Amino acid sequence: MRGDLVRKLAARCLTTGLAVLAFVVLALTGATGWGLALAVAALAASAAEQRIRPGAELVAETALIAAAILVGYSRRLDEGLNLALVATGLVLLGLVLLVGPLRTAGGLEIRTANLPVRAWTPLIADRLGTALLGLLAALALAAALALPAGVALAASLLVGAGAGAVALDLARRRFRPRAGGGSVAAALRRHQPEFLLYFSAPPGSEYQVTMWLPYLERIGRPFLVVLREPEFLTPIAAATDAPVVYCPTLGAMDEALVPSLRAAFYVNHGAKNSHCVRFTQLTHIQLHHGDSDKAPSANPVSGIFDRIFVAGQAAIDRYARAGVQIPADKFVVVGRPQVESIEVRPEPARGLAHPTVLYTPTWTGHHADADYCSLPVAESLLRRLLERGATVILRAHPYTTQNPASARQLGRLTELLVADRARTGRQHVVGAAARELSLTECVNAADALVSDVSGVISDFLYSGKPYAVTDMGDEGDRFVERFPLAGSGYVLRRDMSNVDEVLTALLDTDPLAAERWATRRRYLGDFPAESYAEAFLSAARRELAPAEALTASTPA
Question: Which residue ranges traverse the bilayer (predicted)?
């Protein structure tokens, strides 16, 4: 986060500095060529800043650059007052002032993917800033080549006409909306979705949705995905054939939630979930994006949903243990369908000479009480594993790099494993190679797991293989009380003082093998392996069935 702030500040200073320098050189010196070069450099810096700071307002910098280019243009032509350049300046001023408001207005428009709707206005509005920078770069080139001023005016009028068309269409949408909604609502009514998956989260969280999409598709009913942040539109649309709709406003949601919908599924406790829960005609179902003993897994906010689909009885007990009172009829035990492809090892494998160990450090969390990350103490753990001849799969949480300290720690561990791979030939899996593997593939390749408190342990539990859990709060005996899943694993102290003892139990003796199977049933349900995901699919279909159908199917 600190590194991200530094990068944004550096981009801001570079853009402003180059814009001011270009104007000063062109306005106060005779170095026209150097001034135009600096103007182009300022444009490049502006484009880079827009990537680093999406939505950044660059009105002052862009106006300075435009003025500098026009001064340089006038000097290159050396014709005195040039009315075409004056007109070009007026058009550029209008564009500089309009780009920001038009981008903002376009950002308030509904956008879609995987739906036969062509909404060109919001897309063009979002790119007007880039178009303006491109126009200024073209004018700088025209100035350098001393092309007639009419060329600059024609190019400016062309971009200005496009901006005007966008402004008119956005104004029509805002002040004269179509009765019954726009083209998106019409297309969704034709699609007749029966349920939606609602999603709002910080950047990089799309995995919370993609883990559920295959199972929502297997329900066999038409559905749509509703997003509240625009950056998710492209990656999530690529992961499904279902319509994906970005709703920036409550009004856009009113348009997207068509009458055929019966239920809404959620995968987290995002603050914007309340924007959808207000539609009381829907059944609202919380799925979560993993099952773990972390504090957020017993969030009191779960009580706002009509149903809470949980993996097993342990999840229900977790709420009770946290003092969160939720009516029992809201809970539905459905297993964790994502584990259905995990290979189960019914008999413990003890004393492996060259085990493969999956290490999955979690991230530091948004708050200190949710920081279970073991990266600061992991180096001694990995060195002990290497001494035992283990091959390591290092698969860090997707949010790890949001914390610069965690990113550095992960980098050191990666270097350690890469160096050992070069020296011994053991095929450790790290970096991009680990990210390309699914969690299921990692679990199937491993003989044992070392993890922090996270949902990875619940998934790994399905395999029946042994696992160790890091006690990063140094809680001792209270650790298992707070995180019962650790009771069927081997607990690593924060100071790693028991690392050898734990690794012996994990990789050689495995005394908790029998106890792990009882824990597996409590956490993941007791469903047949050959039809494990069917529990979720059946529960979801029941929620989608019309009330009269449910009444007819109930025995008298």
Answer: 20-44, 56-74, 80-102, 123-145, 151-171
Q: Which pair of structure tokens corresponds to residue 168?
A: 């008119």
HEC secondary structure over 24-81: HHHHHCCCHHHHHHHHHHHHHHHHHHHHHCCCCCCHHHHHHHHHHHHHHHHHHHCCCC
pLDDT value of position 448: 95
> Measured at the alpha carbon of residue 126, what is the angle toward residues 35 and 113, in degrees to the nearest 5?
145
Write out the two tokens for 190.
């034709």
Taking the C-alpha atoms of residue 301 and residue 516, their distance in angstroms, rounded to an integer, is 31
Other Cβ atoms within 10 Å of 435 Cβ, number = 12
Segment holding 159, helix H or strand E? helix 149-175
Which residue's structure tokens are 């949980």?
Answer: 310
Closest alpha carbon to 449 in 434, 428, 433, 470:
470
What residues does each domain of the chain span? 1-175, 183-335, 356-524
CB 231 within 8 A of CB 173: no
Do the domains 356-524 and 183-335 match in fold?
A: yes
Q: pLDDT tens-digit profile of 446-499?
A: 999 999 888 899 899 999 999 999 998 888 888 998 888 889 999 999 999 999
In whole angstroms, what is the distance from residue 551 CA to residue 556 CA?
A: 9
Q: What is the pTM of this model?
A: 0.77
Rounded to an integer, what distance in angstroms lies between the CA atom of residue 341 and that of residue 162?
52
CATH dotted code for 183-335:
3.40.50.11720
Q: Can you spell out the DSSP letters for 301-353?
A: GGGGSSEEEESSHHHHHHHHHTT----GGGEEE---GGGTTSPP--S---S-S
| CB-CB contact of 434 with 442 (8 Å) | yes
Q: Any idea which fold 356-524 has?
A: Rossmann fold (3.40.50)
Q: How far is CA 143 from CA 17, 159, 293, 419, 426, in A?
A: 22, 18, 65, 54, 60
| Amino acid letter, 2 | R
CB atoms within 10 A of CB 165: 13
Task: Please tell me whether residue 148 adopts helix, strand or coil conformation.
Answer: coil
